[in-house]
Design brief:
Length: about 500
């Protein structure tokens, strides 16, 4: 930790008077004891890198850092989806048009679909201050930097250095309008580099909006199953894919966590065959159990990893602000992405970038993460308690070691049994005023996962979560009449949008 902060100061990433996170916040973010951070700060203070004071933020000492460019508010800124086989998947069939919802289906009152964070949890004072900074930025005649506002890219570098264990160059960071746009940009760059449509391996089940973005940009999808350790490397080895998209820290939606050995094996294979690894760092900020997992990009020594992050699940999906970190050693890909981004132009409004940069620079972003991390942990524990005593035979919960959602699965129908499908449970709970997602909608190859639903808990209170669990568990317990089909299953399936879902693949009953 001491060496990392020293490095950020030496290379100018952290500048004069930049604030550092509080010892409590940084300890929670890194998963270490607070005393460890206190000792590190004391050592850095003694060495003259920072100054600490009681009741205030530790700050970088003047003269210790190199210079940087970029401004926020006009002044200098100190930086601080799918039918396919496993081996060869074609693009998904288009989704059916939503059917009109009949009048007897009530308006949902609890939205527990995945991918919705606690947007209102941020401090109103911090939120208003960020937008005041955007409003105070001077008007000017000119276009925005297509690669992104330098001040925002600098702050992304600082955050990655503190929280994810690697420090890219500012020129390696490219701002995108959400994860889907970032994936589309990568496909465009790969097409230019390869001179043909790229074959891209994806996790199955996986991020359906990402799948749509890839196929819409012209990629051919190759579906690879997910196991307890993440994507199946043996199946991946037989695909001859040009790139693979993985979410190794919290696989979406099943929540598998890829062990370090598997990560190194994936990187070694990618380097040996020239495959690009796209790391979707989904939900890395929210670990409820265990120690933080290193980013793939932090282990990459061959320049094969494109790191993808954003602010949709930490701040607000409506910001549509994400970023790619390009590997320095991958010159042709780096140049192709920059060329594609430059040709498309800036896609995230500059005031939005100014506001996000302000939240990062002032420490408001890290304070917000600390608050919601505690709240999400409480909700995760509530789900674990409720499901442990549910009395539903074979009910399992996955994705509870981190993130904002839980995946509930139950055994498929045996001979003579009438077990509900995920779509039937989705329809039943919607009729009771609760929205969840069908696990089958995240599959590329249908039937791979069995019956299940995905329940998001980021944007609901504990009492609301209790009510939603009452409704979901009752719907799972209720047997299906063999001769009846609920038409609302189709209606609700069409109505559920493609939100991302993370979670670990714990294959047993829920354990708090």
């Amino acid at each position: 930790m001491v060496a990392r902060i020293r490095g950020l100061v030496h290379d100018g990433t952290l500048g004069t008077d930049d604030p550092l996170p509080s010892t409590r916040a940084l300890a929670a973010e890194l998963g270490v004891a607070r005393g460890t951070v206190v000792a590190a700060y004391e050592q850095l203070d003694g060495e003259g890198y920072i100054r600490t004071r009681h009741g205030g933020a530790a700050r970088v000492v003047g003269g210790a850092a190199g210079g940087r460019s970029g401004d926020v508010g006009g002044g200098p800124v100190p930086g601080a989806g799918r039918e396919a086989g496993v081996g060869r998947a074609s693009r998904p069939a288009p989704a059916p048009a939503p059917a009109p919802v009949s009048a007897h289906v009530p308006v949902p009152v609890l939205d527990c679909r995945p991918g919705i964070p606690a947007v209102t949890a941020i401090s109103p004072r911090d939120w208003r201050a960020a937008w005041r900074a955007a409003a105070d930025a001077p008007l000017r005649n000119g276009l925005s930097d297509p690669l992104g506002l330098p001040a925002l890219r600098e702050q992304v570098v600082v955050q990655l250095g503190l929280a994810r264990g690697f420090t890219p160059g500012v020129s390696d960071v490219v701002v995108a309008a959400g994860t889907s746009e970032a994936l589309s940009l990568l496909v465009e760059a790969l097409r230019a580099r390869l001179g043909r449509l790229p074959r891209i391996a994806v996790e199955d089940p996986g991020y359906r909006s990402g799948h749509r973005a890839l196929t819409s940009a012209g990629a051919e999808l190759v579906a690879v199953p997910v196991g307890p350790d993440g994507i199946d490397l043996a199946v991946l080895a037989g695909t001859s894919a040009d790139a693979v998209v993985v979410s190794p820290t919290h696989q979406y939606p099943l929540g598998s966590v890829m062990p370090v050995g598997q990560r190194r094996a994936l990187l070694a294979r990618a380097a040996s065959v020239g495959m690009v690894v796209v790391e979707d760092d989904y939900d890395s900020e929210f670990r409820h159990r265990g120690t933080p997992v290193p980013a793939l990009a932090a282990l990459d020594t061959d320049g094969v990893v494109v790191h993808l992050g954003g602010f949709s699940k930490t701040l607000d999906p409506r910001l549509r602000c994400a970023y790619l970190v390009l590997p320095r050693a991958a010159g042709p890909l780096h140049d192709a992405v920059v060329a594609a981004r430059t040709a498309r132009g800036a896609v995230v409004a500059e005031p939005v970038q100014v506001a996000v940069a302000h939240l990062l620079r002032t420490g408001a972003f890290r304070r917000h993460l600390g608050r919601v991390r505690r709240d999400y942990t409480h909700r995760r524990e509530q789900i674990a308690r409720r499901l442990a005593g549910s009395g539903v035979a074979g009910l399992e919960a996955r994705a509870l070691t981190g993130g904002l959602h839980a995946v509930l699965t139950w055994p498929g129908p045996a001979v003579g049994a009438a077990v509900p499908t995920g779509a039937e449970v989705v329809a039943r709970v919607a009729a009771a005023g609760v929205l969840v997602a069908d696990l089958a909608d995240y599959e590329v190859e249908r039937g791979r996962s069995g019956p299940g639903v995905v329940l998001g808990y980021g944007a609901v209170t504990l009492p609301e979560l209790d009510r939603a669990l009452d409704v979901v568990l009752a719907a799972i317990r209720e047997p299906v009449a063999a001769t009846l089909v609920d038409p609302r299953a189709t209606i609700l399936r069409a109505a559920v949008p493609g939100a991302s879902v993370p979670g670990p693949a714990d294959s047993g009953p829920v354990v708090p």
